[in-house]
TrEMBL record:
Its EC number is 2.1.1.-. It holds the Pfam family Bmt2. Keywords: Methyltransferase, Nucleus, S-adenosyl-L-methionine, Transferase. This is 25S rRNA adenine-N(1) methyltransferase. The keyword DNA-binding does not apply. It comes from the Eukaryota. It comes from Aspergillus ibericus CBS 121593.
Length: 287
C-alpha cells in the first residue's frame, strides 16, 4: 500500500475558519428542511383558515390566525421563500422568465422602450427581471419587504382604466399555490387577463403578445387528484392562453403562456382526475 493511501486525508481549512468569531451571517441560516417545513405549515394553516371562514367558524379562524402569528406570520414565510430563491437552493425563478423572453426583448435593446411587467408576489427588487433593462417592473405583494414593492392584494388592485395600467407580462411565481382555495386560484387567473395588453409600449410600433409566467411546485400538476397537465391546458386555453414554454425540475414547473387566443372562460369544477392515496389535493376551480 502506498504511503499516500495509508495517510489520513486532511480536509483543507475553510476560509470561514479564519474569520473572527464576531463576524456572523446576516440571518441565522435555516436548513432546507426547516425552510420547507415552515412554508408547508404556512400553506396548511392558510387552507385551514380559509375553510373555517367558509364554514362561518370565526372562533376557529381566530385560533388559526394566532397559530400563523405564532409561527412568525407572512414575514417568516417570506424569509423562508427568499432563502428558497438563494442560488444554493434553486435560485431566482425570474431568471427563467428572462431567458425565455430574451429573443422577444432583442428589438427593444438600445431603444427607450420597455415591456411592462407586473410581478405579483414580489420578494426582491433585484431579481433577474428587475435587473433587465428592457423590462419595467411593477412589484406587488401582500406584505412588502422593500420600498420598491407595493403592499397590495392583486385581487383588490383596481381594474385598469387605460392601456398604461395594463401589462405585457404578468409573473405569478409560486403565488397561485399560495392562494388557499381552488376557486380563488381560478379567479386569480381570470383577473390576470384583465391586466394584460397587446398594445405596444407608447411611441413604439412593436408587435406584442402578452404573456403570463407562472411557477408552481411540480407536485401541484404531476401528483394532484384534481389537476393534471391536460386539465391545466384546458383551463388556460379557455381563457385564451397558449403554452409557449414549459420546463420542469425535480421541484418546480415553470410555464410561459401567451395570451394569443380568445377569452371564453368556461366553468371547471373540482373532480377526481388522477385518483390515488398518495396524491395531493391541489385544484383550480373556475366558476
Ligand atoms: C412563495 S412567495 C413567492 C415569492 C417569489 N415570487 C418566488 O418566486 O419565490 C408567495 C408570495 O405571494 C404573495 N401573494 C400571495 N397572494 C397574493 C396576492 N393576492 N396579491 C399579492 N401578493 C400575493 C405572498 O404574500 C408571498 O409573499
Amino acid at each position: 500500500m502506498s504511503r499516500a493511501s495509508t495517510q489520513r486525508y486532511k480536509r483543507p481549512a475553510l476560509l470561514s475558519g479564519s474569520r473572527p468569531p464576531t463576524v456572523k451571517a446576516k440571518h441565522a441560516a435555516l436548513s432546507s428542511k426547516a425552510t420547507r417545513n415552515l412554508i408547508r405549515s404556512h400553506h396548511r394553516l392558510l387552507k385551514a383558515r380559509a375553510q373555517a371562514v367558509q364554514a362561518g367558524d370565526d372562533i376557529l379562524a381566530g385560533k388559526i390566525d394566532a397559530q400563523i402569528r405564532g409561527n412568525g406570520g407572512l414575514k417568516s414565510y417570506q424569509l423562508a421563500s427568499k432563502l428558497g430563491q438563494s442560488s444554493d437552493r434553486g435560485g431566482d425563478s425570474s431568471r427563467v422568465l428572462v431567458d425565455w423572453m430574451a429573443p422577444r426583448l432583442l428589438p427593444l435593446e438600445n431603444t427607450p422602450y420597455k415591456l411592462r411587467v407586473l410581478e405579483i408576489g414580489a420578494l426582491s427588487t433585484k431579481n433577474a427581471c428587475s435587473m433587465n433593462k428592457c423590462l419595467e417592473v411593477t412589484r406587488i405583494d401582500l406584505n412588502s419587504q422593500e420600498p420598491g414593492i407595493l403592499k397590495q392584494d392583486f385581487m383588490e388592485r383596481p381594474l385598469p382604466n387605460d392601456e398604461g395600467d395594463r401589462f405585457h407580462i404578468i409573473s405569478l411565481s409560486l403565488v397561485l399555490n399560495y392562494v388557499p382555495d381552488a376557486a380563488g386560484r381560478g379567479d386569480m387567473l381570470k383577473r390576470c387577463v384583465s391586466f394584460m395588453t397587446k398594445a405596444s409600449p407608447s411611441g413604439s410600433s412593436l408587435a406584442i403578445t402578452p404573456s403570463l409566467f407562472f411557477v408552481l411546485p411540480v407536485a401541484c400538476v404531476t401528483n394532484s387528484r384534481y389537476l393534471t397537465e391536460s386539465r391545466l391546458q384546458d383551463i388556460m386555453s379557455s381563457m385564451g392562453f397558449v403554452l409557449a414554454k414549459s420546463k420542469q425540475t425535480s421541484k418546480l414547473i415553470f410555464q410561459l403562456w401567451d395570451h394569443a387566443g380568445d377569452y371564453e372562460p368556461k366553468p371547471f369544477r373540482k373532480e377526481t382526475l388522477n385518483p390515488g392515496k398518495s396524491r395531493n389535493n391541489f385544484a383550480i376551480v373556475v366558476k
